[in-house]
Design brief:
- This protein has about 80 residues and is mainly beta.
- A three-stranded mixed sheet has the order 1-3-2, with no helix packed on it. A two-stranded antiparallel ribbon has the order 4-5.
- The protein is globular, with a radius of gyration of 15 Å.
- Helices cover about 15% and strands about 45% of the residues.
- The chain contains one helix and five strands; from the N terminus they run βαββββ.
């Protein structure tokens, strides 16, 4: 998992509002490792493409938690 940034508001909007858990996406951009080896790398996203949309989730048996703009899905039947 990398910290990500983008200069394109359409990519940010798609990631926050349109992409669903389980969607197969292709993300292109530039990965930069800071001079400090202990610092995390940062990924600058230049392109986002949905290759395959996930099937609509069935909420039965799932737990949804919201953290600000993020939704976390817990499913006991999957890793």
């Amino acid at each position: 998992m990398y910290a990500c940034t983008t200069g394109d508001p359409r990519i940010a909007y798609a990631l926050l509002r349109e992409i669903q858990p389980g969607d197969l996406v292709r993300v292109t951009g530039t990965l930069v490792q800071p001079d400090d080896p202990q610092a995390p790398a940062c990924f600058t996203v230049d392109g986002l493409e949905v290759l395959e949309a996930a099937p609509a989730p069935v909420v039965h048996g799932l737990v949804l938690e919201r953290f600000g703009n993020h939704v976390v899905v817990f499913d006991a039947d999957r890793d």
